[in-house]
Specification:
It is a single chain. By secondary structure, the protein is an alpha/beta fold. The chain has two domains: 119 residues, ATPase, nucleotide binding domain (Nucleotidyltransferase, domain 5), CATH 3.30.420; 156 residues, ATPase, nucleotide binding domain (Nucleotidyltransferase, domain 5). Helix content is 38%, strand content 22%. The strands form three sheets. Strands 3-2-1-4-7 form a five-stranded mixed sheet, with helices on both faces. A hairpin with a 3-residue loop joins β1 and β2. α1 packs across α2.
């Protein structure tokens, strides 16, 4: 049994992963301080059978034993945070860590390995992450940065442009299409606070302005897919995350991509593992590492 933990910008989930299935799944909000974070991890890991290993899917990118944030606004203390040694000491067993979208990409690929060899996973959630499988191998990169499509520039600006992404650049996909970005733009347009969930509900109920906002985000995602396809010659894109899995989002992204020239067309599918892509993928990635050693 592998204990898998998925650390995101707004939540931490943990589950025992056995034969690719999550059991005893638990979830807590992501705390704002390190002390509360470690306490939450300990709570999620307690009262479980002794795992054969611990696999962490984590927002940001894993550089050696530390995790670094592309967007430092996501988690305040996520700046070269020594995640692996901290959790190894806390949990009393060996810990490995991988970017959450990379883990999800691997989990989704493992379900499709007979279908394709080159896959891009895009998670639209608090932020926008991505993971790449090329030639049947997960691409992590020298610094764990590979696949971070959320911080690639797109040709669709947010409605409150000019707006700098939390990473410090202008024009990033994350600044247009993340849940945080949608809520920010909705507040700018409607003049009061709205969550991305509320915005999607309004769009589905026929609010024209809300629909325009989410379709604008979908066009930005389609732009990022087209650029990635031009660079990597992909076979498939998989969409996940709370925003990516929101009702209607896949259809809007597919419709936006259909407006591009034929050379940029490729299939886009919904994440088969849903919210558990990172948990299952991190466990599968650890199993592969153990087999190859």
């Amino acid at each position: 049994m592998i204990l898998a933990i998925d650390i995101g910008g707004t939540k931490i989930a943990a589950a025992n992963v056995i034969n690719g299935e999550c059991q005893d799944r638990r979830q807590l909000p992501m705390p704002a301080t390190e002390a509360a974070f470690l306490q939450a991890i300990q709570e999620l890991a307690s009262d479980r059978p002794q795992p054969t290993g611990v696999a962490i899917a984590v927002t940001g990118y894993v550089d050696g034993c530390a995790v670094r944030a592309v967007n430092p606004q996501t988690i305040p203390f996520w700046d070269a945070y020594p995640l692996i040694p901290r959790l190894t000491q806390l949990l009393g067993c060996s810990v490995v860590a991988i970017n959450d979208a990379q883990a999800a990409a691997w989990g989704e690929y493992c379900l499709r390995h007979q279908q394709c060899q080159d896959l891009l996973f895009i998670t639209l959630s608090t932020g926008v992450g991505g993971g790449l499988v090329l030639g049947g191998s997960l691409r992590e990169g020298t610094h764990g940065l590979a696949g971070h499509v959320g911080h690639a520039a797109v040709d669709v600006a947010p409605i409150d442009a000019p707006y700098a992404c939390g990473c410090g650049r202008m024009g990033c996909l994350e600044a247009v299409a993340s849940g945080t970005a949608l809520a920010r733009q909705a507040g700018h347009h409607f003049g009061h606070s709205l969550s991305s969930t509320e915005l999607f509900d309004m769009a589905r109920l026929g609010d024209h302005d809300a629909l325009q906002l989410v379709q604008r985000a979908a066009r930005a995602v389609a732009s990022a897919i087209a650029s990635s396809h031009a660079q990597l010659d992909l076979e498939l894109v998989v969409l996940g995350g709370s925003v990516g899995l929101a009702p209607g989002m896949l259809d809007w992204v597919q419709a936006a991509l259909a407006e591009f020239p034929q050379v940029y067309q490729l299939p886009i599918e919904r994440a088969l593992l849903g919210a558990d892509s990172g948990l299952v993928g991190a466990a599968a990635w650890l199993e592969q590492k153990v087999k190859s050693e």
